[in-house]
Known about the structure:
The complex is a heterotrimer. Chain A is mainly α. Chain A has helices at about 1-15, 20-45, 55-70, 75-90, 90-95, 100-130, 140-170, 180-190, 200-205, 215-225, 230-260.
Amino acid sequence: MKxxxxxxxxxxxxxxIYRIDFWVRLISIFIMMYxxxxxxxxxxxxxxxxxxxxxETMTTYGVLGMMLGSFVDAASDVSYYIAEQVRxxxxxxxxxxxxxxxxxxxxxxxxxxxxxxxxxxxxxxLFAYLFLDFNPPVSPEAGLAFLISLFLGYVVFFxxxxxxxxxxxxxxxxxxxxxxxxxxVQFASGQLVPIWxxxxxxxxxVLALPFKDIYFAPMSIYVGAQQGSLAEILLSQVVWxxxxxxxxxxxWQRVQRRIQVQGG
Amino acid sequence: MAIIEVKDLCKSFKVPVRKEGRLAAVRNxxxxxxTLKTAVDCVSFDIERGEMMGYVGPNGAGKSTxxxxxxxxxxxxxxxxxxxxxxxxxxxxxxxxxxxxxFGQKSQLWWDVPVIESLRLLKExxxxxxxxxxTNMEMFGELLDLHEFQQTxxxxxxxxxxxxSDLAAALLHNPDIxxxxxxxxxxxxxxxxxxxxxxxxxxRERQVTVLLTTHDMSDIEKVCESLMIIDHGRIIYDGTIAGxxxxxxxxxxxxxxxxxxxxxxxxxxxxxIEREGQRARFRFNRHRVSASELITELAGKYQIKxxxxxxxxxxxxxxxxxxRSPSENGPIES
Amino acid sequence: MKVVRALQFRLRRGxxxxxxxxxxxxxIAIRSRLQYxxxxxxxxxxxxxxxxxxxxxIWILVARFQSLAGWQYWEIVMLYGTxxxxxxxxxxxFWHLSNLEDDILHGRFDQYLVxxxxxxxxxxxxxxxxxxxxxxxxxxxxxxxxxxxxxxNWTSVQWGFFAxxxxxxxxxxxCIVWIIGALAFxxxxxxxxxxVYIRFQILGQQYPIDIFGMWFRIFITGFLPLSFMNYYPLTxxxxxxxALGVYGIGFLSPIVAILLLALGALIWxxxxxxxxxxxx
Lengths: 264, 334, 280
């Protein structure tokens, strides 16, 4: 816990150094929340039956997606960090740190995650309640399950992002693909358009992938539109989270050996 | 007339202040305070045409900042600079044709293509006449062994080879002045020696003015005639290398091998600092006693087999100068 | 007087000299890139995945709602193809503008300043991104498909306007990224803001902006003028009402492009001046 605290403090300090980033990010979240809200309102007016649920649930889902998008994405900084170390040839230095690399990365990003939860999430929530017809969780239990599911979603995202970072050892410049990465995540995680709107064939594919556990799982629990029982969803998240962390660990072991043998 | 003239040159930067205490992180996000940090503090110096000047100082003393102002990268806060009759910041592009710069830590060559491609491109950038280009390439081929690796991409070169390529790149357009900012980090001894010879020859044949910053004092000793030391943004020594020894090296050392059977040794005018077997080392103040007097004294008292006198290393002198506290660091003219 | 002389000097030294250098830089950049083949394959795969995902999302929405605010599927595909055409040119030659912070942070920018040619040119000529080539191919196919399916038959004037719109689109995107990149002169890094920009682009670029509320339409018209890249010119070419209800906004695309170029140049100059006085 002490380690985590240290990382949170560092995250705060970094936020201070880049305060312009902070403000731009915050305001952009407001704008995106509004965009999503207005999008569903307008489309609802066009064909009300197309949703299969009432407007407020839909807009709550959309707005929540934009709000969470910003800080769960903090995890994607992992891939960027790793790519940067690879490019500068300093990945070996991380081998020498006393902390296991994956644990190190995880805590570093968890610190950022909590920071954004407070500095972006709370103002976002306030904005949503005040201006955007935002619903509270459907029930207190749903609220609690949402928080757990959100954390699990973060872990899943971390795993995917870590593996993505490992890719930068094979190919040089993954920054060019951040666009691709985000589009895929936004699409397959149901962050922008909920998966229940997908045609069945598409939905089947997307539900078989881990991305849905990042956003769709917690968000559908929040609005009470989850596909299947609560236990099933959380179990799926736990399984994917553990699986991805294990995969990350295995890949990292190989990479580590490669670095030790070839000297980077 | 001096080729580089610097008068009362200052450079200060604004750096953000970080608040401490409760809720500091939050307050830091809202307010914005900055404080002034002086990197170069009113320095003045001249460098003559054809001079080879060493420029040393601890990390963060203001060396790089000075060089950046001399090359036009940085705008001075106040003071005057003139390089080859130009004001660097104002006439940056014009000046660029007359100077060559090597930043040791990063190569200025194109990373992924053979060295020769970079040099060909530089020929275009500086609009170097083909004849000059050919002459220079021959010279570099000979003196820097450039042809050994000119077909290799820069990223595959050794540090020494890379430094040689960078040097060639900086000299291709026959600059009047060469700025070398820590050019030899990580370069092996052989390559270093060759570099020093090359610079000396260049200076002799083409009267190129050289300003060299380095952490290795032997570079300075072997290449330069004069030396500037900067610390905390102020020049604390500006003069010849012989002069610095004169001024700061008060002590010299005498190593004596005594004949077998000599046990206790001592001297009235020198301090015994080490004794190992039949060998003893003495330290003496050069202003109070000369080496020959000391030798005469010792030879009169004991039987001596061999003798050698050493100066204090310049490295040692400079280290001592750094170690003096900032308040003592008044400028010292020689 | 001073300005005139400076201008004359510039002309004499030649725009040609700098332009010729730029092409030489690009030549070297292409040869550098060819050394990394795996990057190329990953790049192609990435471009394919990205575009298929984007088109799928459009398709899913349209399958649900039949049309989006009066735009049919192939019209939206054309919107996407038009954006992608502009974007691909940017992607090949100017992608690395967003990485300016790297050059500043690692002191590479200093080197541009000790050479006798434009720092901007040296920076721009440093890289080409040939996965953008895949974008060009994909964009063209998508556009041709949409054109065919919509049964369009443009006159040469319309084609001319389309060409201008594509070019303006490239300039607009390049300038936005240029300005964001130049922020690094002050803040030392611009990545986070660039990422924010990408998010807006993913959200707003591929759809007719009529599906968003008025404030967002204004935002993406006036503050982050992405809709001038594809949406507004196409409302004219497809003869559709536009989201602000003011006829002919689409004709403003080239003007927006020029304004952004001027703004970019201004910010760049100030940034460069700031850089030389702070040095980071």
